[in-house]
Write a structure and sequence with these properties.
Chains A, B: InterPro entries: Tscrpt_reg_Rrf2 (IPR000944). Chains A, B: This is Rrf2 family transcriptional regulator. Chains A, B: GO terms for molecular function: DNA-binding transcription factor activity. Two copies of one chain form a homodimer. With about 140 residues, chain A is mainly α. Chain A has a single domain, classed as Arc Repressor Mutant, subunit A, CATH 1.10.10.10. The first copy, chain A, has a two-stranded antiparallel sheet. In chain A, strand 1 and strand 2 form a beta hairpin. In chain A, helix 1 runs antiparallel to helix 5. The interface between A and B is large, with 46 and 46 residues. The structure holds FE2/S2 (inorganic) cluster (2 copies). One FE2/S2 (inorganic) cluster binds next to helix 6 of chain B. The structure holds a DNA duplex (30 and 30 nucleotides).
Chain lengths: ~140, ~140
DNA sequence: ACAATAAAAGACAAAAACATCCTTATTTAA
DNA sequence: TTAAATAAGGATGTTTTTGTCTTTTATTGT
């Protein structure tokens, strides 16, 4: 519905990495994928993208892995989503018209634009850290056993 | 974002057909596609699906085409969407967990479930006819010139 | 230095979504 | 009763998304 598989895996992985960010050791791709039930190599690609976009940090070599800086932990979800789905995703027309505009709106525009706004608010108002905390406190999960 | 191309074309086509339902003549696929700027054959397939699901009516042969009964005009959008995207689409987990549940929620569950509810409301509260009327009164459009 | 480790990168494969084309079935007007 | 029109159906093709496998590059502990 809202997110592509790529985006789902990306968010889940980032949240897992964030949830491990108290520890000093970095988190390897293997461990990440086990804990979020995502395909190993595909997820690695996604993390590459996020790393290039400076939403994650990584280190190669022995004892390497992924980790997040304090700054990265404070990023709102919307930054992650836009990095993966593209900046435009939250301004396109819901019925697929070439542009979403008030001047020539589609028949769903009013209601859709309002919901799209809710989505934006949700994604802007939740940081990766917020989500990680809900994991750490056992209030939320990244896979179902 | 919300809808697949298939769904977008399906909705646009249905709304166009609805907007022509005052006339006695039925509406051909050619005319439909011109007016919604959608691919001819692909859209035809989608209309087949909607017709099989009794959300549209059709007639073959000379002067045939698509049309909608009074009852069909009153269907809320959600019926269209579920016919195309599948019934489950509005109850799946936003982060792709196997199930969306209150018991083992994903970290986005609370906010996502609420938005998903808004979407359901929007789609339940708008009939195809409603959208067609906004077209007919020039308040909305199905393509941008 | 060297071997081991782990991410990055690139090539490839499978599945799904999107799209076209051709044939068939049905209807109607002439 | 026949020809034209029009949707339905089936086969096929293309593109995008999703996923795997292999090689390369960087880092580090020994
Ligand atoms: S024009 Fe369709 S959502 Fe704005
Ligand atoms: S569990 Fe993820 S949206 Fe409900």
């Amino acid at each position: 519905m809202l997110f592509s598989k790529t985006c789902e895996y990306g968010i889940r992985a980032a949240v897992y990495i964030a949830s491990q960010s108290d520890k000093t050791e970095k988190t390897g791709i293997e461990e990440i994928c086990e804990n979020i039930e995502a395909p190993r190599h595909f997820t690695a690609k996604i993390l590459q993208i996020l790393t290039r976009n400076h939403l994650l940090s990584s280190q190669k070599g022995v004892n390497g892995g992924f980790y997040m800086t304090a700054e990265q932990l404070q990023q709102p979800m919307i930054v992650l989503v836009e990095a993966i789905e593209g900046k435009e995703v939250l301004s396109k027309c819901g019925l697929g018209l070439k542009a979403c505009s008030e001047v020539e709106p589609c028949p769903l525009h009013n209601k859709y634009a309002s919901i799209r706004n809710n989505i934006k608010q949700m994604l802007s108002g939740v940081t990766i850290k917020d989500m990680a905390v809900s994991l750490q406190t056992g209030k939320a999960f990244l896979k179902i056993d």
